[in-house]
Amino acid sequence: MVDDMFGREDVEKREYDILSEYACKAAGSQGRDYYEQKCAVRTDFQRDRDRIIHSKAFRRLMHKTQVFLAPEGDHYRTRLTHTIEVSQIARTICRGLCLNEDLAEAIAMGHDLGHTPFGHSGEKILNEIHPGGFSHNVQSLRVVEVLEGDPEKGGLNLTFEVKNGMLNHTGDTDPVTLEGRVVKISDRIAYINHDIDDAQRSGVIKETDLPEDCIRHLGRDHRTRINTMVTDMIENSYGRNAVAMSPDTFYYMDKLRTFMFSSVYLNSKVKKNEDMEKINVIIRTLYGYYGGGEEAKDIIAGMTDRYALNIYEKIAGK
Question: Which of 15, 1, 211, 187 is nearest to 87 (CA)?
Fold first, then answer.
């Protein structure tokens, strides 16, 4: 190794010099389940990010539905573009709070690896038919611990902090790190705003349909709303061992989320009955075809929308 190279140890030292006292430093990580020699250049969180990005599960996100099933247009979000938007929002917030951007990026890149084809509709059906239920966050953890990499050595063998953030990016339990909590809120900021953008593009809603009090507080366009929420998070969390929005901004964000559920996520123009029934038949048919149980669940959850449809059509002889 070149003597004057700026390596991992230098990066780790710099984290202690410039990051908040509340940030999770790579050198202070609880580590991996299986020992590995340290990288000369990258911190453990940077290595985790790279392992996730280079995984097959990550590549498949490009062909998994976010909200709109098989949309006619090139500009609708997929599960992959959602992941990238979450990562960028989380990094911006972490930068403003002097938290660890590498950790936040790794969590964000991995948080949806376990998502089913056909978005939350596919997840709902798999949850109904699989004994013990199904949650995409739990499956995301299974992907990196078992289904990718070497299962005898912890799969991708990611650090505790990254796996904890992935598992708890949704649900009632908060991640143990502030970076993980930033990703959890960034996920909501991202999907509320980009789903509004996609819904307006599709004609499901118009700008005038959005609650006026929310728009007054948060902003009338996509970029302004995201900037309002991100800036508010930074202003209300700086120098604290916590991350949170102001009560007003959180209230209007949550009200906008409620509006999206009633007007978009459950809208018959988006979730057409015939499409929902088709998804129901596809998931149930595939589950039975693969023999049910854990293996069937893993196979189906790993499928892209188009692959699931192709396999179903072969099974059904169409």
Answer: 187
